[in-house]
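Data deposition worksheet. Section B asks for the primary sequence of the deposited chain exactly as it was used as input, without tags or linkers unless they were present during the calculation. Section C holds the resulting structure in token form. Section D is free text for depositor observations; keep each observation to a single sentence. Incomplete worksheets are returned to the depositor.
Section A, Depositor: J.P.
Section B:
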Amino acid sequence: MANIFDEMANALPSKSINEVKPIKQASNEAPQINNPHEAFPLEIKLVTQELIKFGAIEAVRKNTSFVICSQNKATINKILFPLDLELTIDDIRGLAFLVVIRQDDLEHNDAWQHPLVRRQRMNLEQSLMTAILRQFFLAHEQESGVGEIKAIVHLDDLLSQLNQYLGASGSESHDEKRLRNLLEQLRNYALVSEIDANDKITIRPLIVHLLNPEHLQNLMTVLQQQSTDEKIK
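Section C:
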């Protein structure tokens, strides 16, 4: 015998399962992307790959890539975050470069190594040469303005500074060879250009961000003191 509830149910219009729409529930999760290749524009992916490969992009050399970095910094950093890398922009000097995001518990672990970044330690002479180049670069910026024109320096000017700290060997050819070898080593760090036909190099703006200026100044002070002590002896 049907009761009142059965009569009310029978009075309602029936719907098939296909006609019933599921209720959408609110979610804080990011929407899923059906095609991962469409997550980021191709130009951003290519520039990110370029950054990972070379570590830095200069506006004076690749302006289009630099502009993409500058305009899409947040998006690129989203791509780089899982890799413990971060994009830094120096707008004044027209430089985009990567830095490693160090974890606090690994900050003082000498054994730590980033899987995509090879740790390269400079020796004493390389560090000294970097300090000298950095001084020339900053002096150029003070005279010509930051980011205005390239910082170009002649080998003779660098050689006189290098000999001041390391001492001249007595052989000009030996001292010049030592300088050229150091500059070639630092070129692998993207700090200088190749030596041109006029024995000049261009100091690249990355050198400003490479080392702590206080450490460099302390290094040069110590070397200068050593050179003075040797002359007294």
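Section D:
The radius of gyration is 30 Å.
Residues 3-9, 11-33 have pLDDT under 50 and may be disordered.
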